[in-house]
Amino acid sequence: MNLDLTIDVLLLAFMAVIAIAVVRMRDLFGIAMLFSVFSLLSAGVFTVMDAADVAFTEAAVGAGVSTILMLATLTRTAREEQPKRSRNPTLPLIVVFVTGALLVFGTSDLPRMGDASAPAHHHVAPRYIEDSEREIGIPNIVTSVLASYRGYDTLGETTVIFTAGVAVMALLGIRRRRRREEPGEED
Amino acid sequence: MTVLHLYNYEIAIFLAMVGFYVVVSRGNLVKKVAGLSMFQTSVFILYISMGVVDGGTVPILVEGMTHYSNPVPHVLILTAIVVGVATTAVALSLIIRIKEAYGTVEEDEIHEQDKSF
Amino acid sequence: MLHHTVLRVVAKLLIPMILLFALYVQFHGDYSPGGGFQAGVIFAAGIILYALIFGLEDTMDALPPGVLKILSPLGVLIYAGVGVDTLLLGGNFLDYNFLAHEPTHGQHLGIFLVELGVGVTVFSTMLLLYYAFAGREPGQ
User: Fold this and answer.
1) Whether the Cβ atoms of residue C41 and residue C122 lie closer than 8 Å to each other
2) Whose CA is closest to C136, among A72, B55, A36?
């Protein structure tokens, strides 16, 4: 557990550094790349915290697909962020500090991380862990909860993904570029 | 150990606030989306941190193991990640349309153009 | 099409592995980390890698957007169809116990079909997103 904790602390510290770098950078290409690293590090954090399925998804989605989408957006918009004019950074900073302070105050009551007696581990989770072998018969509890116990949820999520696809189709559509080899061909 | 027992939560809040700051203070829309995604990732970290159990392991049943980390946050976040990328894609495609309509993705310039109409 | 020999050779070696791995993640998700969401994204990532190196036109010839536009709702339909099927067999919506004689066999079958639906929708939507973004002419 101690080694786990060290890796966890280091990865999260790296993520904090990258977050600061994202705020300070103006090169949007660099930001997209840093964001990809940020996602990969968070996948590492998930692995350390025993969430293999989540780490897997984050590595494929965050570091892969969303970076590619962000880069594709950059080639169609602008590479550089324009220096901001007539903007006072004090008000955003105050808002962020007050919100952060309230949230930190809220965490002071949270049970210690890893505390097995925390309320979160005493509602439905023990039932899933103890009964899913008998009721569902597959070893991966995450899959049983995802696809069977909480099948409604997942149906909703799948529909959301489909809807997002429809929204992007409505906004951008798919244009097939003309091939360079056959310049005379009409589309 | 006493200092570190809420470390994950504090860092998650810090990352969320950095993302929040980018969203409220920067004018570039692509950067705002990057900030929003950072906020999202930090919420994922907060959730997964709550599912950790001392001495627990990955929630895949194996002989001889009795302690597993809480699978419920894993399921919630697993779907949230994929839904997150889908909604980010909608945001980015809106940005592309804004660029085509206004010729810029800077918030100030868009507001100026709106005023001049 | 780019003419980077190293990229092209490495991609040709890697892409079949990525696609095979995606199938493994999809169908072995009951026993190891994985499932429809991850498999769909990995499969799409393999195809996107092909598109990045061999060009969008060739990819669209191999996997036309029209096919993906059918696959994307098809996944949701498979998922919802399993639910309706359990309703018709006398159970509750998405109660897989009624899909086979043994409840656990029904659960296995139900989870398999549902994950397949999720995988198909996620894969085709991710690839459609990439097509939409990459097919847009730069600048304007």
Assistant:
1) yes
2) A72
Contact residues on chain B for A113, CB-CB shorter than 8 A = 5-9, 49-50, 52
List the one residue out of B57, B79, A137, A152 whose CA is nearest residue C31: A137
Domain carrying residue A160: 121-175
Q: Residue length, chain B?
A: 117
Q: Is residue A97 part of a domain?
A: no
Residue A18 within any structural domain of the chain: yes
Residue A171 in domain: yes
pLDDT score at C140: 45
The CATH topology of domain B4-116 is: Helix Hairpins (1.10.287)
Better-predicted residue by pLDDT, A134 or B19: B19
Residue B46: per-residue pLDDT:
92
Looking at residue A184, its pLDDT comes to 43
Within a domain: residue A115? no
Q: Taking CB atoms and an 8 Å cutoff, what residues of chain A touch B35?
A: 22
Give residue limits of the domains in chain C.
5-135
Distance from CA of A187 to the nearest CA of B (A): 23
User: Contact partners of C by the rule of 3+ C-beta pairs under 8 A?
Assistant: A, B
In the predicted structure, residue B42 carries a pLDDT above the cut 70 = yes
Q: Where are the domains of chain B?
A: 4-116
pLDDT tens per residue across span A4-49: 888 989 999 999 999 999 999 889 999 999 999 999 999 999 999 9
**Phi and psi (nearest 5°) for A140?**
-75, 105
Are A21 and A65 contacting, i.e. CB atoms less than 8 angstroms apart?
A: no
Is residue B73's pLDDT more than 70?
A: yes
